[in-house]
Structures are given as structure tokens and as C-alpha cells.
Design a protein that fits this description.
Layout (H helix, E strand, L loop, with lengths): L4 E2 L10 E4 L9 H8 L1 E2 L3 E2 L21 H10 L8 E4 L6 H11 L5 E4 L3 H6 L4 E2 L22 H8 L6 E4 L3 H4 L17 E2 L6 E2 L2 E2 L3 H10 L6 E4 L6 H10 L5 E3 L3 H5 L11
Parallel strand pairs: 1-6, 2-4, 2-5, 5-6, 8-9, 8-12, 12-13
Antiparallel strand pairs: 3-7, 10-11
Helix pairs in contact: 3-8
Amino acid sequence: MSNVFVSIKDIDTSEVKWIDARFSLADANEGKRFYKESHVSGAMHWDLNDDLSDLTKRDGRQPMPSKESLVELFRRSGLNIEDTILVYDDGGSPFATRAWWFLQYAGFENASVVVEGFEEIKESSVPVDNETPIPKKTAVNPNWNESIYASREFVEETVAGRTSNLLVDARAANRYRGEIEPLDRVAGHIPGAFNFDWEQLKSDGKFQFDQSIKEKLSDLADSNQKVTVYCGSGVTASPLYAMLSHYGYENIRLYVGSYSDWVSKEDAQVEKG
């Protein structure tokens, strides 16, 4: 089991770099407001809309940023490829795992998600303040790991049966079945996809790491199986990706564009039920 998720109680935080990924899908400015009020000392804020998406693109609701913009984000955040990096949000949310996935994609192998949310972190011995840090800019060059990224073309190949990947939809079951669709143009799911609601990974608003979670993941896929996960916009699939990685699954991809990208084409095939 890899250290994708770590507890603030179990780690030395003296020589780490922090990323604050707090955000709210209901209020796009909430994360920035909370960060200005208080954050872990030295933490940089990565905003879902501003930093971890390119909303000028039409590839779904939270499109993949360009590599150039990601490199600039890493450099102005003062990151080096060998750094130990801790990412947090409010706890049990998909935003820290979204940020963590981009760090994995770029080759930052010593990055982890803090299980606890900011309020619990604040109650530990970790110092907090409301000062905006200005780290020394680096010249870091990412080691892009294309094996964890699923493009639309890759998913099309998967649907056609040419990749041996298991396609997993992380949305709620009623959206997967096409009974409701509050956000996207067409209801349903990508043909051939299985359903695993990411909310199953939590209890009382916190990610769980007990035997029941391992069993649920084992029921979904064998640890050697190739899996591609998606959701509505690529955000809530990231906790499922992270949890699979945490439990030793090594052949996982994230379809960042996800269902909203899939149905952006008029002739997109979908299934219901």
C-alpha cells in the first residue's frame, strides 16, 4: 500500500511544501476566501477553476490545463521534483486528490493527500497564518507520466474493446443509470462502464481506510487490472483514482474530461440503465 493518503498525526511536517486545494462547487470563490482568512503557513493555494482547469477550453466542464500552464503553476509554487509535498482541502473532498493527481502526472513522486481537513490540521501542531507566501520560483521540469492520463481518444478505444481497460463511472448511481442529469447535455453513461459511486469511500464525511473499503475495491477490480476512472467533470473521479492507487493498483488512468467531455460531441454514444 502506497502513501497516497497520510494522517497529520503520523508524519513529520517540518520539511514539506504545502498545497491548499480548498474549493466549493456551490461557491467558486469560497476556497480563495477561506485561504485568505487562514491556511497552513507557507501553503500555496491551487484553485480548481483558476489553476487545475482551463475553462477556456470546451473539453468538458473542468478541462485539462495545458502542460505549459501547469509548469508555470509548479514553478511559481516553488516546487522541485524531489520535494515532499502535502495537499489538503476540507477533508473528504475531491479537490486535494485532483491537485495530487496533477502532481503525479508531472512526476512529483513524494506528494501525498492529508486525510484530515484544514480545521483538524489547524488543531494539530502545524502552524497557520493568513499571509500569502511568495516562494522562490524554481525551474522545475516535470517528468510527465502519460500512462495515468486517459484522453478522449483512449476512452473511445476502450469502448471499442481495444485497450483491455475496465471503465468505471464514479458518479451517483441515478446519474450513471441516466435517471437524472442535472449538469450535462445528455443523461446516461459511457458505453460499457461500470458504476462505483465515489461517496462509498467515505463515512461521516471522511475517507475511510478499513477492510470494507478494500473489499469494495476488490469487488470492483483485481489489483492487476487496468482501470480507467471518470465522473462528470474529472473532479470526483480523482478520489477513486487516489484510493485505488493507495491500495496498490498500478494500472490506473483518469479521464480528466470525463462524461461532460464525452457528451460534448453531438454523436456521442451513451448507455442508460
